[in-house]
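Provenance and format

Records in this collection were gathered into a single text stream. Each protein contributes a sequence line and a token line. The two records reproduced below are adjacent in the stream.
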Amino acid sequence: MTSIAIIGAGPGLGFAAAHRFGREGFAVALISRNQDKLDEMARALAVEGIEAGGFAADVRDRDTLVDALESASADLGTIEVLQYSPIPSREFLRPVLETTVEDLAAATEFSILAPAAAVSQVLPGMTDLGRGTILLVNGSSAATPNGRVAGTSTAFAAESAYGTMLHEALSPEGIHVGQLIIPGAIGGGDPLFAPEALADRLWRIHTDRGSFRTTVGDSAVA
């Protein structure tokens, strides 16, 4: 069996994606900081017949993140799909003139170095499989700079550039890299932004293996 590792797993999009991919036969590795909450989600998935496990890690501690991915692969099977979708911290969401060097350093760790470490960890397994998908989930500032959320906007732009380069480099190897831009509040009442609808989008990115970027609400991909 192969697995999906969801970094930033929570009760909204993370759980919906776990359920969507689990229904398709994937084992699910749930990764976030709180082991109790992860275990609760894993039990809920088990009720649905989905094999799942929780692996606690802080994305700003790369060693624990790599260890969690290693344990997930050992327990649940080779990671075929990696989803990177943690929620940015508040210090990344300040106006540009209030954003400090330390804020930018933390945002860089969160949105560039952590996903790079995660990709480095799972890529050998995907290469051995001859297939795989890396899913990056970002807000609209990943595509259009927003001075009101300068830390995230800066780091998301770099994450987008990194993902674009990975998309180009890994496509010939059968590994797809796709980014989902969500320009709105998840679960805010618009059915396009319901967690289940977004999870369906992630599944389609995995199966359709098209261009790098998909934007929710874009009529070309709706």
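Adjacent record:
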Amino acid sequence: MKTKQDIAVFLLRITLATGFLSAVASRLGFWGSYSSGWKNFVSYTAETNSFLPQTFAPGIALLSTITELSIGIFLLVGYQISKTALSASILTLLFALAMSISFGCKEPLDYSVFAFSAGAFLLSTFSRYKWTLEEFLNTIK
């Protein structure tokens, strides 16, 4: 049973990491013609945060991109997983709430943002994480 849980936690960690990294790659143009691009992302940020002044959009876009890149990398390599996953959960919950305020609850439900947030929160609750940099560093101490 423990092995199944270890595999599930590993897969959750990797899928959350790749979700964050894919979003960043898209706005930076790394997905080629499938990329959203930076300008489109800043515009979408302004729409999603319609309750804030539009002048905030570039700063929010930059801050969220840096945060998502950091979360993606930390989850992918398996470092500070509990704290990183909690941060991911909070960030995606804020995103889902902003989407709900600006577009209604259908869009964050359609894009599974609440599920993504809940998955990240679940990941933050485990006491051990197999196949991680964190585990490796603990074994060499």
